[in-house]
Design goal:
InterPro entries: Amdntrnsf_FN0238 (IPR014541). This is Amidinotransferase. It holds the Pfam family DDAH_eukar. It comes from Vibrio zhanjiangensis. The chain is globular and about 45 Å long. It has helices at 48-69, 111-114, 119-128, 151-154, 174-184, 225-235, 246-250, 272-277, 280-287, 298-304, and strands spanning 2-4, 19-22, 72-75, 95-97, 102-105, 135-138, 155-158, 163-167, 188-192, 209-211, 215-218, 240-243, 257-260, 266-271, 291-295, 313-314. The protein has ten helices and 16 strands. β8 (163-167), α5 and β9 (188-192) form a beta-alpha-beta unit. It has a four-stranded mixed β-sheet with strand order 1-9-8-7, with helices on both faces. With 320 residues, it is of the alpha/beta class.
Length: 320
Amino acid sequence: MLKQQPEQQSVSTVQNANCVVMVPPKEFAFNSETALDNEFQHQVNQTTEQVRALAMQEFRVMADQLSDAGVQVIEFDYPLGQIETPDAVFPNNWFSTTTEGALFTFPMACKNRQQEVRPDALRAALERAGRKVTSQDSLVDYLEQDAHLESTGVMVIDHRNKTIYAALSQRCDREVLEDYAERIGYGRVVSFQTALPSGKPIYHTNVMMAIGEHFCVICDEVIPEFERRFVIKSLAKDKQVISISLEQMNQFCGNILELQTDKGDKVIAMSQSAYEAFSPAQKAQLSSHARLMPFNVQTIESIGGGSVRCMLGEIFLPKS
């Protein structure tokens, strides 16, 4: 469960990004490939055109409001290909960045999601937006072993303590996870099992937990008891632990992200459904750390099975 890595060149420990990549949902639709292990997805009785119009409206409002709050938003558009990418609106699953200028890309589990991985185009967009990429690295070769690691979908990272938390699943392979930790010099990997009432594991760690600078939100009841105590003890060393129920997780209370504005203020991005599902006491706890920013992304989270955090690819790259 706990894997200590040898010390490598270590990135600096900024917890909150002040810049994010967002991808417009122009091909958004119910993804039957990902639905095989994502119990958060739902079919709807709307046309594709209606769904995409609603999703684009939700995306636009969220991008504009984050930008107005002082978070740099880089909109990464892309040309249409032969294979549609219905989940492209969730870019945090295929890349990550470091404060030292590294851009990583990851092995995605589903074929149509592998089409989203466009490192050269992303690098060009980042550099146009004034962010400096000094190196590129990829774990995509693990696809040859049928091994996957869907970036910050499956890894919830405590940068201050150089610790990666990860729920193991077919989208989160232990070997790839430990390889990535070693490459970025993070010496501690806390991996664990999970089980939903159906018996299936959580498909992405970031629907069950989030880590801010001084707090964490976690649905610990999905973790087996013998591992749960260890995970909570590790988090509680220097974080306020806010435990959410299975019902709250299903409203995406775990799928939130603390960000920093250009003035240094902190905000917590979350969906309106998550905001409404948090108890008044939990909202007060979260508000003591940052301003809460709820967004109505009902179409995206219901059909796509991911919410606000999934829509945000954190950019830690230095300014050029």
